[in-house]
Design brief:
Radius of gyration: 23 Å
Shape: globular
Structural class: alpha/beta
Largest sheet: 8 strands, mixed
Strand order of the largest sheet: 7-4-1-10-11-14-13-12
Number of strands: 14
Strand content: 5-15%
Length: 415
């Protein structure tokens, strides 16, 4: 093969590809639309009295254990759900009949959850205890789903008219300059889709199945070619599953008009060997990496990796950099020699960025502290390729001069 000819053909093809901006939305991105915070969900768990143990709500009981183990108030609702999922895995493995290395986790053989498990399953036989811990786990999972739905259904309320208009103008700004805009979110909502779908066509990684249900698109080329897309990396409250006679198996579906609660236990693909994971429309807790290899999330993460590898700009909004699997994709696969980076966050009253968030950001994007320029609105590295905006997403969207910072070239920051 003539490598010189191959090289010229390759780069000619690359020049014909669309320029693209990747925008990753974390929990903080939804706050302007009255999205619920992590602390609020934690308080819902603590106050929820459906399950009680030793005179306390189950949420209060478990968080007290976690606070005694960690520093007080360092654990969050995901820690709580991870605890329940660990207990679920423990109990399912402990009570499996015909245990073998293919169907049972080794966890019950090496650790003991002590008083909590004994108190939870007092006087319950194996079948009852298996059903009971799954019932508890799904209850709290559905608390999260209900809270997400509460704000997701009011995205287009009149109080958000200006905010939605600013978001639409923000997207049109890049589209008008020939860029593809690829939204990915760790949230479980349809925020961007609802905000803009009546104004701009958007691709959600789904294809029509029947009048109310959609299937997940498995053709990665469609994700790549989409001019504007919005993809949920951690699942969505509108995801579900059903048994399809034609396929002869359970299939993943989305019902855009109907949100889905966790109802029935069915095994999920992915995960560690021998470790039973059960399907959930959303993924939270500490098994995200395992679940990321399950359909349909494995499709979304492959698309995310492809887009990070071939973009000229990455914008992270309200993302705490607490998900190692996402951090790894950004830090490893982004072509930093051609890509600019912008993180949008909210600084505290003293204009300081959260130290833990900033430390994790540094590890992912190698943000340069030395000789960095900073004021109450911005921080930028010495090379003017990496930026932090400190006044939140809603304020960022109001000023068009902010938007061009991520584009190739040098632009003066408007203070």
């Amino acid at each position: 093969m003539n490598t010189t000819i191959f090289s010229k053909s390759y780069w000619k093809l690359k020049r014909r590809q669309r320029k693209q901006i990747v925008i990753l939305l974390g929990a903080g991105a939804a706050i302007p639309w009255n999205g619920i915070s992590s602390d609020s969900i934690k308080n819902c768990f603590i106050e929820n009295n459906k399950y009680e143990i030793n005179g306390k709500t189950l949420g209060k009981y478990i968080f007290e254990i976690l606070d005694n183990y960690y520093d007080p108030n360092k654990s969050n609702f995901e820690t709580f759900l991870a605890t329940l999922e660990s207990i679920l895995n423990y109990k399912l493995s402990l009570t499996t009949e015909g245990k073998n290395i293919q169907n049972t986790s080794f966890s019950p053989s090496i650790y003991d959850l002590k008083n909590l498990i004994n108190d939870l399953f007092d006087k319950k036989d194996d079948d009852q205890s298996r059903a009971y811990i799954y019932e508890i786990y799904t209850h709290y999972l559905n608390v999260v789903i209900d809270k997400i739905y509460e704000y997701d259904i009011q995205i287009n309320d009149k109080k958000h008219t200006e905010l939605n208009k600013n978001l639409i103008d923000f997207i049109k700004y890049y589209l008008s300059k020939g860029y593809s805009v690829k939204f990915y979110t760790t949230n479980y909502d349809s925020l961007v889709t609802q905000s803009i779908s009546k104004k701009i066509p958007i691709y959600n990684g789904i294809v029509k199945y029947n009048d109310i249900e959609w299937l997940f698109d498995k053709n990665l080329e469609h994700y790549k070619l989409a001019k504007l897309s919005y993809i949920n990396l951690h699942g969505a409250i509108y995801n579900g599953y059903k048994y399809d006679m034609g396929f002869g198996k359970y299939i993943n579906i989305r019902k855009p008009e109907y949100y889905s609660q966790q109802l029935y236990a069915i095994g999920a693909q992915g995960g560690n060997p021998n470790e039973m994971l059960l399907y959930s429309p959303i993924i939270t807790g500490y098994n995200k990496s395992q679940r990321a290899f399950s359909e349909p999330l494995n499709i979304s993460f492959n698309a995310f990796a492809n887009d990070c590898n071939d973009c000229v700009g990455i914008i992270t909004v309200g993302y705490s950099f607490s998900d190692p699997h996402i951090n790894s994709i950004i830090s490893t696969l982004t072509s930093w020699n051609k890509c600019k980076f912008l993180h949008i966050t909210i600084a505290d009253t003293d204009n300081n960025i959260d130290k833990n968030e900033f430390s994790r950001l540094n590890e992912v994007a190698n943000f340069i502290n030395k000789e960095a320029d900073e004021n109450e609105f911005w921080m930028k590295d010495a090379n003017e390729r990496k930026f932090i905006y400190k006044k939140g997403f809603d304020e960022f969207l109001k000023n068009k001069s902010n938007w061009r910072i991520i584009l190739p070239g040098n632009y003066n920051i408007q203070y």
